[in-house]
Amino acid sequence: MATTTKAKMKLHPLADRVAIRPLEETEQMRGGLYIPDTAKEKPQQGEIIAVGPGRFEKGERVAMELKVGDRVLYGKYSGTEVTIEDDAVLIIKESDVLAKIG
């Protein structure tokens, strides 16, 4: 049985920015009520899929603390959401990441 794999996304954030794939919360319907997508909360967890080289401070590059594959928490309205190759991606500054999970 053949399986298809998705080609790696060619995304290279600049400076101290990271690209995050938001993790969707599992939908649980209580009492048979349907909650439309417009009424759902925005996810605040995601997985880092690309990392920039870091910012410059006093003429020296400061390395990033985050790396590809890290699961993180970020602010509800942080960053810019874009769609690349049919995937929703959030581009956010490293300083806007609240915590690393795990």
Structure description:
This protein has a domain of about 70 residues: 10 Kd Chaperonin, Protein Cpn10, Chain O, CATH 2.30.33.40. The N terminus is likely disordered. A hairpin with a 2-residue loop joins strand 3 and strand 4. It is mostly beta strands and about 100 residues long. The protein starts with 16 loop residues before the first strand and ends with a strand. It has a 6-stranded antiparallel β-sheet with strand order 6-7-1-2-5-8, with no helix packed on it. A two-stranded antiparallel ribbon has the order 3-4. The chain contains no helices and 8 strands.
Search tags:
mainly beta, disordered N terminus, single chain, 8 strands, 10 Kd Chaperonin, Protein Cpn10, Chain O, elongated, 6-stranded antiparallel β-sheet, 102 residues, two-stranded antiparallel ribbon, 39% strand
